[in-house]
Amino acid sequence: MDITDTICALSTPPGRSGVAVVRLSGADCLSILRRITGKALPEPRKSSLNLLTDPRSGGEIDEAIVTFFKAPHSYTGEDLAEISTHGNPAIIAALLDTLCHLGARIAIPGEFTMRAFLCGRIDLVGAEAVRDIIEARTIYQARVAGRQRDGALAKELQPVKDGLIEAIVNLESAVEFAEEDISTASRDVVFDLLDGAARRVEKLIYSFRKGRFVREGFTLAIVGPPNAGKSSVFNALLGRDRSIVTDIPGTTRDLVAEDAAISGIPVRLEDTAGLRAVGGEIENLGMERSRRAAADADAVLLVVDASRNLTEEEYELRRQLTSASSILGIVLLNKSDLPARLTEEEKQAFSGSWPYIDASAKTGHGIDETRKVILKQISGDDEPDRDDFMITNLRHCQALEIALDGLGRGRGALQKGMSEEFALFDLRRALDTLGEITGETNTENLLDEIFSRFCIGK
């Protein structure tokens, strides 16, 4: 890749469509446009209708709307054009072939956004957020990614960096002017600066608990004994009839999965076969898949029939699920529309450390409450604050953890009475790591990994 090249690519999905957008960016952008349109273009940021031709043959390619953006006021920071043609694959191929003949080359995945980063149009977090916006499955995901693109994380990190820099300056002054009569901040002041920075970093790291599910979604396995109403609960959470529901135990013999969303967070719902001690050959295969689904899921919804007494088999199932400490669980006491057979003490004893909900998949009672409890188990919140900032990217969280470790080590060295140089080593490392998040420091080894995941044309 040569970033001085002029590049082009289709920026809309391939295939047939009403309109397709081809991007052209680089130093030769304007001269290439003039050759395919045969005329000077209007002033930047004003669209014009143009007949596109191939200079090699003079043949018509298409009639298109062309918008030119002058550097540095463009997405890439270079001269850039967006050519809106009819969405016909033959037209798009002919246009790209002509642009390449005139000196452009096809962009590699993510190259337009990489150039935006290299030209200082966005930071590295913003570049990653562009991909998140494209891949968002809900409008809430898109909004969270949009805040990242607009520099929200950089704003959150700035007070941390400011406090860390002030602490480093004070410590360096103590080292440089140890024999001079120059006033430097006491170690207590430095401790306050480092403690303030550490608290902010810890808060950001904790937000990843919710943020990773917002970005990636989560899987919820619905498990329980036969005829407890798991498929009815599955359909109620999904909002439509997807699983077959009958009064015959063991109707669901294989895993049924569908995608949904809870408060804008994507969730993969899995309706599993009923679990019991003994079954037929086919039913046993289904139960084995149910157990694997429960083990692999981010959370488990254990559904039992509260209109009858609980069996020892159900208590054993509950104990097996509890023994897997990594599983987040909720107990749903289904069929609340029927006379209850369980006391509050029995419900509490059965659910243990897991929250429980009285619900009826048949009437819909408790289903909204179930969604809220699921969300709280996953994210720690009953309802995500729409304006609350959160870390959604694993790379950012890992960098913050390294920075927090550096802050702790630096503070520890000072507490032990060690020389400032020991603390400075760890504190500078922490500052550099924070810079890696936004792309200010040590980004060379990250760029190929990050931008290779983009689609071509973005």
Description:
The chain is of the alpha/beta class and 458 residues long. Helix 3 (111-118) packs antiparallel against helix 4, helix 4 runs antiparallel to helix 5 and helix 6 runs antiparallel to helix 7 (187-216). It contains 15 helices and twelve strands. The model has no long low-confidence stretch (mean pLDDT 86). The strands form two sheets. It has a six-stranded mixed beta sheet. A six-stranded mixed beta sheet has the order 8-9-7-10-11-12, sandwiched between helices. It is 47% helix and 17% strand. It folds into three domains: 7-123, Probable tRNA modification gtpase trme, domain 1 (Gyrase A, domain 2, 2-Layer Sandwich), CATH 3.30.1360; 139-213 and 393-439, Four Helix Bundle (Hemerythrin (Met), subunit A) (Up-down Bundle), CATH 1.20.120.430; 219-379, P-loop containing nucleotide triphosphate hydrolases (Rossmann fold, 3-Layer(aba) Sandwich).
Set down the secondary structure blueprint.
Blueprint: E1 7-10, E2 17-25, H1 29-37, E3 48-53, E4 60-69, E5 80-87, H2 89-101, E6 105-106, H3 111-118, H4 124-135, H5 139-149, H6 152-176, H7 187-216, E7 218-223, H8 230-238, E8 256-262, E9 265-271, H9 281-296, E10 299-305, H10 312-323, E11 328-334, H11 344-351, E12 356-358, H12 367-379, H13 394-415, H14 420-438, H15 444-451
Parallel strand pairs: 1-6, 7-9, 7-10, 10-11, 11-12
Antiparallel strand pairs: 1-2, 2-5, 3-4, 4-5, 8-9
Helix pairs in contact: 3-4, 4-5, 6-7, 6-14, 7-13, 13-14
